[in-house]
Amino acid sequence: MNRNNRAVPLKVKAVAKRATQNENKRFVLLVTATLVVVASMLFVNSAKAAGSSVALESPIIDQGNQKSLQRGAQAFVNHCMGCHSAGYQRYSRMAQDLGLSEDDVRANLIFTTDAAGEPTKVGALMTNTMSTEYGKQAFGVVPPNLALTARSRGVDWIYTYLKSYYLDPEKTTTGVNNLVYPGTAMPHVLGDLQGWQVPVLGEEANGVTPIESLAIETPGTMSADEYADYVADITNFMAYMADPIKQTRHRIGMWVMLFLFLLLGLTYALKKEYWKDVV
Ligand code: HEC
Asked: Does residue 265 sit within a domain?
């Protein structure tokens, strides 16, 4: 009788221990599987096809870097908005996100006028007054709205595009061509900063002479590094415009992950508490 009484709890204990070990193993497996899925998602994201035959360069894009975004905004309104609009973006929203006051933006970043000829209001969309007909007449193509281009083309494309202009006498309209976007109707608007590049030709094969690289023929006002930084800032700003809420989303996302993590610990502890006497 006595022996029986002692044997039973011992057996129960052993079974319970095995069950916990199995559970722990399952838990470790679950965590590993989750990590593998997350890692593969990241990999797929970074390995997305570029869709261009030219090797694209990747700038450092950091939407948390307000100074870079401010420089990019300045360059964008100065050099790009003469032709392009950014018609989904408001000046006031840009001021808020880039850490600028509305007065700053009014004084330094608004160069356009509205339909009545008044300076554009800070609450207005970042459009310009170039008409579709004029754009077509001047360039053959209307300069597109650039607000979402960082999504449609990708940041690497834009960055490399702005660095890949070269002199091409056969292009009678603009005198320049582009490795990333051959035959582009856009002139090299940053040519005086970058300088003017000429193609360095490779070996002729099958009647085609490939362009191997580009070399500066006439230096511009910036060094190669300065120009690369300048263009990276513009690209960063365009990436911000294409997804203005990204920073906020990431910040909230971190809190949500932290909350879920704490909740996981809590629910696991609760589950252990509920099941501790049950076999
Ligand atoms: C003189 C007018 C003009 C200016 C200034 C200008 N662009 Fe353009 N841009 C064009 C035209 C025209 C096109 C259309 C080219 C085509 O499709 O052949 C274009 C096309 C583009 C494209 C390709 C868009 C797409 O999805 O096809 C990008 C990116 C671009 N411009 C960026 C810029 C940036 C950045 C600046 C300022 C540094 C700028 N542009 C300044 C006229 C201009």
From this structure: no
Ligand 1 neighbours (beta carbon < 6 A): 79-80, 82-84, 139, 141, 143-144, 146, 149, 152-153, 158, 161-162, 184-187, 189-190, 234
DSSP string, 114-139: -TTSSBPPTTSEE-----HHHHHHHH
pTM of this prediction exceeds 0.70: yes
**Number of structural domains, the chain?**
2
- In this structure, what CATH number is given to the domain that contains residue 220? 1.10.760.10
Nearest-atom number in ligand 1 for the CA of 149 is 26
Q: Does residue 156 sit in the same domain as residue 214?
A: yes
Low-confidence ranges of the chain (pLDDT < 50): 1, 47-52
Specify the pLDDT at position 112.
87
CA–CA separation, 19 and 158 (whole Å): 57
Q: Are residues 78 and 127 in the same domain?
A: yes
Tell me which amino acid residue 233 is: D
Whether residue 266 is contained in a domain is answered as: no
Give residue-wise pLDDT tens across range 101-111: 999 999 999 98
Separation between Cα atoms, residue 82 and residue 159, nearest integer Å: 19
Angstrom distance (rounded) from CA 277 to CA 279: 7
Domain hosting 21: range is 1-45
